[in-house]
Amino acid sequence: MGKTIIQKIFEHHSKNKANVDDIIDVSIDVRAARDFGGANVIKNLEKHNLPIDDSKKTFFTFDCNPGGCDQKYAANQHLCRLFARQHDITVYDMDKGIGTHLAFEEGLIAPGDTFVSTDSHANILGALGAFGQGMGDNDIAHAFAYGKIWFKVPPTIKIILNGKPSKHASAKDVVLKMIKELGANGLLGYAAEIYGDYIDALSLDGRLTIASMATEMGGIIILFVPNKEIISFYKKTCGRTINPILADSDAVYEKTIEIDIDDLSLHVSKPGHPEDVVSLKEVQGTVLDSGFIGSCTNGRMDDMRIAARILKGKKIAQGRILKIVPATDTIWKMCLKEGLIQIFKDAGALIGSAGCAGCAAGQIGQTGDGEVTISTGNRNFTGKQGKGDIFLASPAIVAASLIAGYIVSPDEIPDKPVSVKNSQKKTKTEAPQKPKKEVSLQVKGCAWVINKDNIDTDMIFHNRYLTITNIEEMGPYTFDNLMGYEQFSKQAKKGDVVIVGKNFGCGSSRQQAVDCFKALGVSVIIAESFGAIYERNAINSAMPILVSPDITSLISDKDDLEVDFATGTIVDRTKNKVYEARPFSMVQKTIFLRGGLLEG
User: Fold this and answer.
1) In whole numbers, what is the pLDDT of the chain averaged over residues?
2) How many C-beta atoms lie closer than 10 Å to residue 380's C-beta?
3) What confidence tens digit (pLDDT) does each residue in 567-577 have?
4) Which one of 74, 124, 251, 341 is most buried, counting C-beta atoms within 10 A?
5) Is there a contact between 114 and 130 (Cβ–Cβ < 8 Å)?
6) Strands in 49-190 per DSSP E
7) In which band, very low, low, confident or very high, does the pLDDT at 434 lie, cut at 50, 70 and 90?
8) Is the sign of the CA dihedral 195, 119, 62, 67 positive or negative?
9) For position 182, what pLDDT does the model report?
10) Nearest 5°: phi and psi at 33?
């Protein structure tokens, strides 16, 4: 029986066969920690007196806050620098750009290699035919120390794109079409391979745009077969001859999905949910306050050139601001050399240092209360980039819309922009609590039933709190960005059981979204399914989680429950009924009983 691409990559990096659903140790070619996660990684390493497996394969990347303009970020960055000096680890500091892009620009990663980072979009390296995975602090510390980490071999979905988009449509329009059809959890728990004539001819920058949004579809990774451009890139920049890893002709796929992109029109994602995608015409005319071009999804040179072509000789609409952030310093310098920086400045745009910008809450790109913005980023979760409403679109649409002052197609830019509209909202604060965790394979507690799917990590633990590293301080911020549950941390009691829908914890790789429940003393989270990174983080930090399909329709809020992790049995004492969840796996049980992945 043939193997898929991810199975072959895993087998090349493991002593085991990579059969679907097997849990195997995989060696990691490159292990990286970012500025917001690096301090916690170091804390884990030092707490457990762990070594560095190979300093030449270990890196820090400061892309979340390249200005070091937040005191806690600055402190974390300095801590990472000191640790790096001690252990001869390379730091790609705040002047370099997005770590996942540096991984291939600097020749650290090639097709067929493996890469892990505290960046939930590390799977962007699937664009090169490499394996990348975003992980939490425990996982990365383990990879730093031992050079390997466990993975459950995922099944693979084959995606075929049929047809050719319209001449104005970009790779961003294609991936928005994909997420519209597949949904926020359409690839949950799966790797994907993507094929089609359009994909074969797609540039590296276009591939990165599509690959970067695998996370927003719940996917582990979308893998591309390297084309001539990728192979040539490595030959010219690294002197490396690439032999691409291909799926076997008789590889077994979970299913094959065909998506029609023939004559695809321009698309936009509406605020709050990346998968809420509509035709540009449905939102055309929406008045804007600001725009953002950048992120790991659309901060490449192709994106900068497209934006410059539209902005040349024009001005941003009065009262608006367009923020432009190249992905890496190399791209920034190319923009300078080609005169693009001058075009951006003449148009009235603000250009930031290379990095993640608004997506990471650490640099320009944030929105004010009631602000309406249009962004080339990969996420527009409520509160992700501040209190504003965020539309997602291609660089061409963003540039055109900021000239017009409203959402518009690049070929319909008006002679005169519209005026700005303003709105205001109130913010909320929470009070602290200091609960303790319980260690037992059986628990009792009162149910909190939250019948919602796709609760993302910004709803659970917002990115404005990411500099908090003390678990005891995290509890008060749990769910304070989830509408209707802002008071959860005040009302939850030690031992409570949280019941949630599908794809719980989608989005970021932040460990705090798990640890905040531990801080409150929540005894177990039972979901219909979990985001892939969130599931790992919970298991590795010994936070009990169970999967039980349709559980939100079976249990009522405030029911009295008894839960057995070993058997998966859920006893509803209020209704006198028994339900089943998937019990702890051997790995989960082992990690839980010893108190966490890194505990002795």
Assistant:
1) 93
2) 23
3) 999 999 999 99
4) 124
5) yes
6) 58-61, 90-92, 114-117, 131-134, 148-152, 156-162
7) very low
8) positive
9) 97
10) -130, 140
The pLDDT tens digits of the residues spanning 310-361 come to 999 999 999 999 999 999 999 999 999 999 999 999 999 999 999 988 776 6
Whole-angstrom distance, CA of residue 63 vs CA of residue 172: 22
Determine the average pLDDT of the residues in 45-67: 93
Q: State the sign of the Cα–Cα–Cα–Cα dihedral 277, 281, 283, 288.
A: positive
Instruction: Record the pTM.
Output: 0.86
Environment class of 277 (CB within 10 Å of its CB; exposed 0-12, middle 13-18, buried 19+): buried
Q: Which residues of 541-575 are buried (b: 16+ CB within 10 A; e: fewer)?
A: bbbbbbbbeebbebbeeebebebbbeebebbbeee
Which tokens belong to 537? 């983080």
Sign of the dihedral through C-alpha 259, 265, 266, 272: negative
Helix, strand, coil tally for the chain in percent (to 5): 35, 20, 45
Non-local (6+) Cβ contacts of 239 within 8 A are none
Structural domains of the chain ordered from first start: 5-260 (3.30.499.10), 267-412 (3.30.499.10), 442-593 (3.20.19.10)
Task: Please tell me the predicted confidence (pLDDT) of residue 381.
Answer: 87
Q: Are 259 and 181 in contact (CB under 8 A)?
A: yes
N residues, the chain: 600
* Residue 296: both structure tokens together: 């790991």
C-alpha distances in angstroms, 392 versus 83, 377, 408, 448, 574?
38, 6, 13, 33, 45
Question: Is the pLDDT assigned to residue 10 strictly greater than 80?
Answer: yes
Under the banding of pLDDT at 50, 70 and 90, the label for residue 422 is very low
Closest CA to 10 of 350, 249, 349, 245: 245
Buried b (16+ CB within 10 A) or exposed e, 175-191: bbbbbbbbbbbbbbbbb
Identify whether the C-beta of residue 568 lies closer than 8 Å to the C-beta of residue 582.
yes
- Supply φ then ψ for residue 207, to 5 degrees: -65, -40
Of 280, 285, 286, nearest to 264 by C-alpha is: 280
| DSSP conformation letters of 331-365 | HHHHHHHTTHHHHHHHHT-EEPPSS-GGGGTSSTT
**Amino acid making up residue 487:** Q
